[in-house]
Amino acid sequence: MTEAKIEKKILREEVLSERDSLNWSEILEKSRRIKESFLALPEVMKADTIALYASKGSEVFTHDLIRELLPRKTVVLPKVENARQRVMKLAAITTFEELSPGFMGVLEPLRAAKFVEKSAVDVVAVPVVGFDENLNRLGHGMGFYDVFLKGVEAVKIGLAFESQKLKRIPVSEHDVPLDIVVTEKKVYR
Ligand SMILES: Nc1ncnc2c1ncn2[C@@H]1O[C@H](COP(=O)(O)OP(=O)(O)O)[C@@H](O)[C@H]1O
Ligand SMILES: [Mg+2]
């Protein structure tokens, strides 16, 4: 493993053990604030098509955000097409019930879903394990979003709890930085 890879692994473990210690009511309350800040962003207000993801475990809870945006915007979610090659495609949904557990148990659009080109997306919400003030992103260590976000022009918005903010994240050549990070306390841009 390279030095950056080892350092990322250590940071991931630290930040996830802290995040896993949040109780469910704390997660819901912070997530509600994050949802409100996200919805108030001018980039989000003027967007037609928004890529979201369904949260799992101690991640910022996004299910209410998805439900709220469904009647207002074209909502698309990623679907893992080829896990080995880290390929995700985007599919549009019109109701939350169109989601079902896919790769790693993450809710994703059904197989029959209607695919949407990445270039059609105005805003993409990105899951975050850690972030820093330079808006570098630490993910789960599988690189799915680094592959997915490469060459994407949509505004990339990380959703995270303040406790996921790190001093510094080592950056590898393939890492794609965020444009904005929304926490329960602040909007970083
Ligand atoms: N654009 C890419 N093309 C090919 N492989 C990639 C790409 N982006 C990331 N990877 C691979 O994914 C792995 C995990 O990336 P890393 O940045 O450590 O994880 P994460 O962003 O999930 O924290 C890396 O070892 C890297 O080789
Ligand atoms: Mg990365």
CATH class: Alpha Beta
Structural class: alpha/beta
What's the name of the CATH homologous superfamily? NagB/RpiA/CoA transferase-like
Sheet of most strands: 8 strands, mixed
* Portion in strands: 15-25%
The count of strands amounts to 12
N-end to C-end Cα span: 31 Å
- Major sheet: order of its strands? 6-3-2-1-7-10-11-12
> What is the CATH architecture assignment?
3-Layer(aba) Sandwich
- The tally of domains stands at 1
Question: Can you count the helices?
Answer: 5
List the helices and strands in order.
HHHEHEEEEEEEEHEEE
Percent of residues in helices comes to 25-40%
Bound molecules: adenosine-5'-diphosphate, magnesium ion
In brief:
With 189 residues, the protein is of the alpha/beta class. The protein has five helices and twelve strands. Strand 2 and strand 3 form a beta hairpin.
Give an overview in words.
- The protein is an alpha/beta fold and 189 residues long.
- The chain has one domain: Rossmann fold, CATH 3.40.50.
- Helix content is 27%, strand content 25%.
- The strands form three sheets. An eight-stranded mixed sheet has the order 6-3-2-1-7-10-11-12.
List keywords for this structure.
Rossmann fold; binds magnesium ion; 12 strands; binds adenosine-5'-diphosphate; two-stranded antiparallel ribbon; single chain; eight-stranded mixed beta sheet; alpha/beta; 5 helices; about 190 residues; globular
